[in-house]
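Protein NDRG3 isoform X5 (Drosophila kikkawai), 448 aa
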Amino acid sequence: MPQSEGGYVSLPAVNGNGSAIYQSTTEPTAPPSVFESMKRALGQAIKSSPNDSEELLRTERQPVIVGVGARDRDKSGKTLTTKMPSAPTHTAEEAHLLGTMPVDPMDDIELRSVQLQFPNARGSILEACEQRRVPTDKGDVHVAIQGDTAKPAIVTYHDLGLNYATSFAGFFNFPVMRGLLENFCVYHVTAPGQEEGAPTLPEDYVYPTMDDLAAQLLFVLSHFGLKSVIGFGVGAGANILARFAHAHPDKVGALCLINCVSTQSGWIEWGYQSFNARFLRTKGMTQGVIDYLMWHHFGRNPEERNHDLVQMYKQHFERGVNPTNLAMLINAYIHRNDLHLARTPPGTPGTETAATTLKMPVINITGSLSPHVEDTVTFNGRLDPTNSSWMKISDCALVLEEQPAKLAEAFRLFLQGEGYAVGTLQKLARKISTASRSSSTQIELSVQ
C-alpha cells in the first residue's frame, strides 16, 4: 500500500466499479473540494513530476501540532471538561494501522490500606529499654532493660561487630516474642566499647579477656538483684554465657545458644582475625574486614537470600561501629581458651580432671548455611544428652534475622518445657495459631 507521511493514500480502482481498496478506512467518501481539484489540475498543466505531486499531498496531509488551549476543544470549538485518559484507547485495527501497540489503560496501580502491624519495630527497642551503666572490676558495662523487672530474667549477649540493638531488636520485636516479653524481663548486656556511639577506649585500656567478660555478668546479676537467669547468646556472646554458666551453674537456669564455639580458635581463624584487628586499628573499617564480618554472620552468598538485610548490616559495619573498640573485642575472642567441657563424667580415662559438662538445660541452635555448623556439632558432643538438644534451622545462617518465626517457636517450646509460664505460653501459642489460620483463610478468600 503506498504511504505518505501522515497517513495512507488510497489505491486506484481495481474492481471495475470505480471503488477503491480500503477507501472506507483511508479516504473520505465525500467528493473532492474545489481547492483539491485546482491543485491537481495545476499539477497536470505544468507536467509536474510524481515527487512534486507527493509533496503537494504531503503538504495537504501534514499533521497539525495542537496547542494546549486547542487540545481541550472539540470540532465545534466548545471547551471539553472531560479529563484526558491516562492511556490511548486504540482498537486493534487502529493500533495496527498506526504502528503502535495497544496500551493497557490500567497503567497506574495504587496500594491502599496497607499497614504494618509493628511499623517501627527495629527502632522501638531503643525507646522501650531503660539504659544503665553497671560498674565492674574491668570497667563499666552497658545494660539495656526491656520489660518488667519483677518477671523472670533473660540475659542476652551479642556477637562480634554488633550490639544489643542491632543483634536483638528485630527478634525481640517479632510478634511472637513481643507476647513472650509480657512474662519475662530481658537484660541486654553489651561488651565494653561496643554500644551505639561509644567513644574510643584509651590506648592504655586493657580489654577484658573472654573469662573476664563472663565474670562481669556476676556484677550485672548482683547489681539488679537477680538470683537466676536464662541465658540467650549469639556467637561470641554465646561463648561468654557458656563460660559464665560453667563457672556459676547455680546462677543460670537455662541456656539458648546460637552458633556457639566451645574450642579455642584455629590457625585460619586466628590469622584472618589478627589481620582484621590490625586493619581496624590502623586503617579503620576496610572492605576486607566487612567481608569477613559478613561471612561470620551470613556465610557465603548472603545477597542471594536477603539483599536488603545484607545492605543494612553492611551500612552498620561501615558507620555504626567503632573500629578501635571492635579490634579489642576481636583480639580477646581469638585468644580465647577452651571451655573444657566433657560429656563423660570426671575421672574417666582420657579426659581432663577439671572437665565437666553444663548442668543446666541447653538448646544449641545453628543455621544450615552458617559457617559455624561444625563448631555447634562439636559443642553438642560435649553436652549431656539428657538435658540438651541440637537444632539446625534450614535456609538461613543468621537465624535471628532470617528465620525469626522458627527460632521464636523453638525458644517458646524450650521455656515451656522447663516450666516457665506454662499456662501463659500455651495461651500465646493458641493465639498465634488462630491468627495464622485466620490470615491464611482471608488470603484464600481474597484469591478466590
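The radius of gyration is 37 Å. The mean pLDDT is 77. ok done for today
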